[in-house]
Design brief:
3 domains, four-stranded antiparallel sheet, 12 helices
Length: 348
C-alpha cells in the first residue's frame, strides 16, 4: 500500500506588502490593466491559503507600530515579506527587514545587509568589479550637481535610477546616443524619481535572468530570456516599464519571456556557478534573480542583482521554478521554509 503523502503543517503567516499594493475587495472587478498592480500579492495570498496556512495581510507605509502590534497579537511563525519601500523610499525596505530581525521575527526573502548591497546598483557593480566579475562601464550622477559625462563613458548609454526597482523610469528614451539626450535623461531621473541616476554602457545582446534559491545551500533555476521578436533591429532591446507590464505593447512587438534556448555549449553550467558566486559575494539569502546581458561573443555582463524579485505566478521567477519542477505552491512553501530556517548569525 502506497504511503500517504504527509500534509504540510499549517502556519500563521503575516503577509507584508506596501500599503498601496494591498488588493482591494473589488480586485476581481477591476479592469485588466489595473489588476496587474496587485497580481503578485493576490497570487501569493491565494496560494498560501490553498496550502492550508492562516494568512493575514498587512500594508506598510510610514509607521511600524501596526507591524509590532500585529506580531504581538498574531504571533506569526513567519512574515512573508513583499514590501518594496517605506515612506515611498525604495532604499528603506531593508529597514523594515532589520526591524523584523530586532523583534526576533522570522521572515522570508533577503536579509538587510544583502538588500543594502544589491539595491544600490552602483555599489553592486563596484563589488563585482573588485571580484573581477564583468559589469557594464558606469558612472553615478548625484542630484543637485552639474551633469557632465566622463569622457571614458562611451555612447550608447542606458540611464536609470540608482535604486528604484520594477523598471520604473526606464523607457526607450533611456538609451541615449549624445550628450544633450544624456543630460536630459539624467535630469528626468533626478526630477521624476528624486534619486541619483546611473548611466551604464548599453550592451548589445541577449537578456538573461537566473533565479537563485537558498541561504547557505543554493539552487539555481533554468536561465530565462526576455525576447523581442518584432522589435526593429535598430531599436534598443531593454526591459522598460512598458515591456514588463503593458500587455498591448507586448503583443504589438512580440515581447515574451521563456526558457533560454540555444545557449553556447557549457553556458548553463557557467551561469549557475557564476550566479552562486555573486549571490554569496553579496550575502543574499532567501531568493533572488540575477539579470545579465550576454554579448554576441558570449561574454556575460551582470546588469543587476534583485533580492526578493516579483513572484507572481506568471512572472519569470515562478515560471523558471516550474520549469525546474517546482510548482507555484511548492515554490512558495520553499520560500517559507527558507525564511523559517534563516538565522542572522549565519552571515556573521
Amino acid at each position: 500500500m502506497a504511503k500517504k503523502k504527509r500534509a504540510i503543517d499549517p502556519l500563521r503567516i503575516l503577509l507584508l506588502m506596501d500599503r498601496d499594493s494591498v488588493p482591494p475587495e473589488t480586485y476581481a472587478e477591476l479592469p485588466e490593466e489595473e489588476r496587474h498592480k496587485f497580481r503578485a500579492e493576490v497570487d501569493v495570498h491565494t496560494h498560501l491559503l490553498k496550502l492550508g496556512h492562516e494568512v493575514r495581510k498587512l500594508g506598510i507605509y510610514d509607521d511600524l507600530t501596526p507591524l509590532r502590534d500585529t506580531i504581538a497579537e498574531l504571533k506569526p511563525q513567519v512574515a512573508f515579506n513583499m514590501t518594496e519601500a517605506f515612506r515611498d523610499i525604495h532604499l528603506y525596505d531593508q529597514h523594515v527587514v532589520s526591524h523584523l530581525e530586532l523583534l526576533g521575527q522570522s521572515y522570508t526573502g533577503c536579509n538587510p545587509r544583502g538588500m543594502t548591497l544589491a539595491r544600490d546598483k552602483a555599489l553592486t557593480k563596484k563589488i563585482m568589479h573588485y571580484h573581477r566579475i564583468r559589469v557594464p562601464a558606469f558612472a553615478v550622477f548625484p542630484r543637485r550637481r552639474k551633469v557632465k559625462r566622463p569622457t571614458r563613458l562611451a555612447f550608447p548609454l542606458l540611464v536609470k535610477s540608482i535604486n528604484v526597482e520594477g523598471s520604473i523610469g526606464i523607457a526607450q528614451a533611456s538609451v541615449v546616443h549624445d550628450d544633450a539626450k544624456f543630460e536630459e535623461r539624467v535630469r528626468f531621473i533626478h526630477e521624476s524619481l528624486e534619486t541619483y541616476a546611473i548611466a551604464e554602457q548599453y550592451v548589445e545582446g541577449r537578456e538573461l535572468y537566473v533565479g537563485v534559491l537558498g541561504n547557505l545551500r543554493l539552487r539555481t533555476l533554468p536561465a530565462w530570456e526576455l525576447r523581442f521578436d518584432k522589435v526593429p533591429e535598430d531599436a534598443p532591446r531593454i526591459a522598460s516599464r512598458k515591456v514588463k507590464f503593458d500587455v498591448a505593447y507586448q503583443k504589438k512587438w512580440g515581447i515574451m519571456s521563456g526558457r533560454a534556448e540555444n545557449l553556447p555549449e557549457g553556458m548553463e553550467n557557467a551561469l549557475s556557478k557564476l550566479c552562486k558566486r555573486i549571490y554569496r559575494i553579496l550575502g543574499l539569502t532567501g531568493y533572488a534573480r540575477l539579470d545579465f546581458r550576454m554579448s554576441p561573443q558570449g561574454e556575460l555582463f551582470l546588469l543587476e542583482a534583485n533580492p526578493n524579485p516579483h513572484i507572481g505566478r506568471s512572472e519569470e521567477f515562478a515560471e523558471s521554478a516550474e520549469a525546474a519542477g517546482l510548482k507555484y505552491e511548492q515554490l512558495l512553501q520553499e520560500i517559507v521554509k527558507l525564511g523559517l530556517n534563516y538565522h542572522p548569525e549565519i552571515l556573521s
